[in-house]
Design goal:
The protein is mainly alpha-helical. The protein contains five helices and two strands. Helix 1 packs across helix 2 and helix 2 packs across helix 4. The radius of gyration is 17 Å and the shape is globular.
Length: 134
């Protein structure tokens, strides 16, 4: 269930990023490229992005741990941009999906996606019930 919610939130975040033209991040929908196909493409790209972030992102973050310490975590922005660019590269092989015009705009787009994911993560996280003392 968490994975499905994560994919939906990622799809929404990707859609928001594609609405900002200066970022040069676009989605090429499945043919015939109508609204339903755009939504399905966003969900597919979001699922691939979640898998890339979970599998490859974890490995890269473990290997880059010393760089996190040296740069006080700022390398995380570059790594997230790399993972978004990697997702664009993977989906471009299918003839549909994500395209990132420039790597550094991809870093900014990944930052925006992270902010949106953080906001939704805060809103959707399970609330702990306080124990009552009688």
């Amino acid at each position: 269930m968490r994975f499905i919610i994560r994919v939906i939130v990622n799809a929404f975040a990707l859609w928001v990023v594609t609405l900002i033209p200066v970022l040069q991040v676009t989605i090429t929908a499945f043919p015939p490229a109508e609204t339903l196909q755009l939504v399905l493409t966003l969900l597919a790209v979001a699922a691939i992005f979640a898998l890339v972030n979970t599998i490859i992102g974890t490995i890269v973050k473990i290997v880059a741990f010393p760089l996190y310490i040296i740069t006080f975590g700022l390398i995380g922005f570059v790594i997230n941009g790399f993972l978004l660019w990697l997702t664009a590269w993977i989906t471009s092989g299918f003839g549909w999906g994500l395209s990132v015009g420039h790597f550094w705009w991809g870093v900014v787009a990944a930052l925006i996606i992270s902010i949106i994911n953080g906001i939704f993560g805060f809103i959707l996280r399970p609330q702990n019930k306080r124990s009552r003392r009688d």
